[in-house]
Amino acid sequence: MRIVTFFLLSSAVFAQTGQTGMLSGKIADEFDEPVSGASVQAKDAAGKQFKATSTATGEYTIDKLPSGVYEVTVTALTMKNFVKKDVNVSGTETSRLDAKLVQASLGTLGEDDRLTTAAYSRLGSTPPSGPVPRLIDGKPDLSGFWVQPQGGPPPEARPERAEPLPWAEAIQRERRTSNIRDMPAARCLPFSITDRRHGKFVHTPSLLVILDSEEPPRQIFLDGREHPRELNPTWQGDSVGHWEGDTLMVDSVGFNGLAWTFDALPSTEMLHVVERYHRTDLGHLEIEIQIEDPPVFRKPWTQKRIYNLDPKEDLEENICTENNKDPEHMVGK
Amino acid sequence: MRGFVFAVTLPWLAAAALAQSSSIQGTVFGPDGKIVDGAPVQARNPQTGATFRTVSAADGSYTLPQVTPGNYTLSVAMPGFTYLPFSQPGVVVTAAAAVRFDIHLAEGPAYGTLGDDPGLVATIIRKRTPPQTGPTPRTADGHPDLSGVWNGNDDPYPEDPPYLPAAAELSRKWLAENLKNDPGVRCIPGDALLFGSSTWRLVQTPTLLVTIVEGPPFARQVYLDGRGHPNVDNPTWMGHSIGHWEGDTLVVDSVGFNDRGTVGGAPNPRSEKLHVTERYRRPDFSHLEIEFTIDDPGTYSKPWKIHNTWDLAPKGEEVLEYICAENNKDLQHLVGK
Question: How many residue pairs from chains A and B have C-beta atoms closer than 8 A?
């Protein structure tokens, strides 16, 4: 548990009435380096919000701020939130509030989430537009490097609320309170197929392969076969797909019950995943995922995710087992 | 454990003149004294380069007829890890002589353990499935379609890698310590080539060839879209691969390898100068021929080759999920010497 410290460097408050004032200041990190792109939000007693974003020099200004008392929150990628209550803004004067943000991560280069997140935020940020490309059989071609854009899914794609049963919730709670110490990926074991943020799709009429630098390739058979009668349970299960119009329906069973599904929830060998892949245009892929696992969830639940095409992006070689330091660092609590 | 030669001494019978033309014949035995069928037997005259090849029959016997008189190296490299490679130099064939030479294979590191021997598994697969035949399938753009699930085979007649002295020394050291530091032991994709006896899936699109592998590196991409190699400032285990068509042959060019892995087998070191050329041909429906040319002036005195013939897997066989990092026991078992 790291200690969070806030510094209110200076604050000049001038009382006047009937006018609008300004709130400005500078956002820096613990090394006094300016933090750009930080979101500064001033909320009045009625809950009304006024926002600004810090510039490349870390400066921000919220102007036309009615006189009053505000709660100011500063958020930035990978930094702990800064909150300051009872900030007075009066008259036509400019109030000043500087904020020093503290890294939420350890700050070592390899773990500098700011770098990672900044890189990720560029991923798929400007997907190309154009018509849906098609395979020789006329079906939409799902090939490409797809990435979930940062900043969370758009409102219409917000995940449905999962309703895990008490035992599953208890496991989820235990995993969260132990700082996800035992997560499979820390030991170079696969993520759940329900929890993939990006991937390179290679699509032929009889096969869709989803590649990811850190994961075993996922093969989705489109040649009309059914699931094998005798399934050897695996991390990624057995996936078969068929087309319903321009939507590829993918059915997956045969999981080994070891993968963590969304948000550190457990899974069982009864996990059944139904995905609907729909490429809406050249640059966008919608995937609706229905997760059914009767021992874990009260009822099946569905998530809709939108992925952007990033034609400039590709897989890099990433050998997890090479000098893996995760287990010794993930000490839990 | 491919592509290297062990000198094994054994008693052998002297030549006996039986026929007009010269020949070498004998029987191949395993370490338990049982006969070994399907053993690829090669006699090569190192002076002239003359090479004669055959495969041992169901009773373990082999015959190399009409061998030009000379001094031969007789060798057998069985696929997999069941037997050590066999090599006997100095087999003299005189005019109009039938030389009898029984070959006794020594025990390899995985003798008799089925699950540990991909070569044995591949042999069993091959024996139970007669190869399908038919024309080469083609993609819409007219090129051969290499897609499919393939049961790979080792090169039955491997060349001796022409090691430079330092590489020869390193290779001897690795063998002496039973390959205990091979990257594969730690689930790292140590070899630059995707070759030999394993199950592979090739997925071909007009712009990309993907090889899917059971275990690390899981997949390799070969770009067919006309791009070149990037300026490689970050050498990797698998390098960077681009391909183009020369008639019906796909030529794959790979560079950008790190110098910590191997090439074409666990005893073969490599340097960052490694340059691999692969030539893929699908001569009919059910066979794939791959010629690997290994050019690494940092390790070898001249380029050398490996030849693979892969068989189309029977319907229903797939590249399975294999998570090397899950419960890996190699490290504790490969204790070295």
Answer: 67
